[in-house]
Amino acid sequence: MADDDIILSELDDDELVQQMFDDLYDGLKDEIEESVNILLERGWQPYDILTKALVGGMTIVGHDFRDGILFVPEVLLAANAMKGGMAILKPLLVETDAPRVGKMVIGTVKGDIHDIGKNLVSMMMEGAGFEVVDLGINNAVEKYIDALKAEEADILGMSALLTTTMPYMKVVIDALKAEGIRDDYIVLVGGAPLNEEFGRAIGADAYCRDAAVAVETAKDWMARKHNQMSA
Ligand code: B1M
């Protein structure tokens, strides 16, 4: 059967997820949006659609990008399709009546334009009741520090996807130390090339493997902060 003939709503769940992997790979935004809506109608949880279908598909794209099978323009199309799916899920993941549990300033570091993971973290944090100020991509140290002060944030979140940009996180943390305000904020870092050891080495409070871990870690550290304040 030709691709054009596939009727997405007639596929069973497993086939549809496989088809979404293919459609993400081919950068087919309309098809991804349609499939997300079909899974929602079938009762799938938004978080499962995000992790199992969209992130799962993007992982395959990442492997072929690494191996030189896909190139930047194709990956941009895949990212665009993924964002289409994420836009449908965002309001469902964000519970507007959730109590505010803390405020986070988040951004991708200077020199780095990857924002899908950061956007996912923002969405999940908002869904868990955090207020999120998203600074976008390519953030210089001043941008972070100005926003932290202006927003009276509790948490600084930094994202980096490149081995060449991840050291910039230390530049930001060192600048916070130099201003004597490092301990005013919980600093959480994340991004595919990072690990716990790196997080510790640069002086972050925690490395977060994924968006769900970021939410749990942020909640833990906010609880510690409240306990310290009430002690
Ligand atoms: Co980029 N790229 N890219 N790219 N790209 C990677 C990162 C790469 C690993 C691909 C590869 O070779 N396999 C590789 C980096 C290699 C390295 O440094 N070791 C790479 C490269 C080399 C490049 C360019 C240099 C390519 C070039 O131009 N020759 C270039 C750099 C541009 C720049 O930034 N200056 C480039 C460009 C691009 C596109 C523009 C085409 C596009 C970005 C589009 C966009 O973001 N709007 C792109 C993409 C899409 C990728 C891959 C394929 C996918 C990234 C992604 O969105 N993953 C990526 C390969 C990969 O990672 N597998 C790759 C899905 C996302 C949900 O996961 O971002 O890991 P992730 O986020 C997770 C966690 O990491 C964590 O939670 C998220 C959700 O669970 N997390 C946080 C992330 N940030 C967090 C912050 C937190 C907490 C947790 O704060 C508290």
Task: Give a description of the structure.
It is a single chain. The protein contains nine helices and five strands. It has a five-stranded parallel β-sheet, with helices on both faces. The protein is an alpha/beta fold and about 230 residues long. About 40% of the residues are buried. The site of CO-5-methoxybenzimidazolylcobamide has 38 residues, from helix 3, helix 4, helix 5, strand 3 and strand 4.
Rg: 19 Å
Largest sheet report: 5 strands, parallel
Q: Which percent range fits the helix content?
A: 55-70%
What structural category arises from helix and sheet content?
alpha/beta
Give the total of beta strands: 5
Helical element count? 9
Which regions are unreliable across 5 or more consecutive residues at pLDDT < 50?
A: none
N→C terminal distance: 67 Å
Bound molecules: CO-5-methoxybenzimidazolylcobamide
- How would you spell out the order of helices and strands? HHHHEHEHEHEHEH
Strand order of the largest sheet: 2-1-3-4-5
Q: What portion of residues belong to β-strands?
A: 5-15%
Q: What does the average pLDDT come to?
A: 91
| C-alpha geometry | globular
List the helices and strands and how they pair.
Elements (H helix, E strand, L loop, with lengths): L12 H13 L3 H13 L4 H21 L5 H22 L8 E7 L7 H12 L2 E5 L6 H11 L3 E5 L8 H11 L7 E5 L5 H7 L3 E3 L2 H20 L1
Parallel strand pairs: 1-2, 1-3, 3-4, 4-5
Helix pairs in contact: 1-2, 1-3, 2-4, 3-4, 4-5, 5-9, 6-7
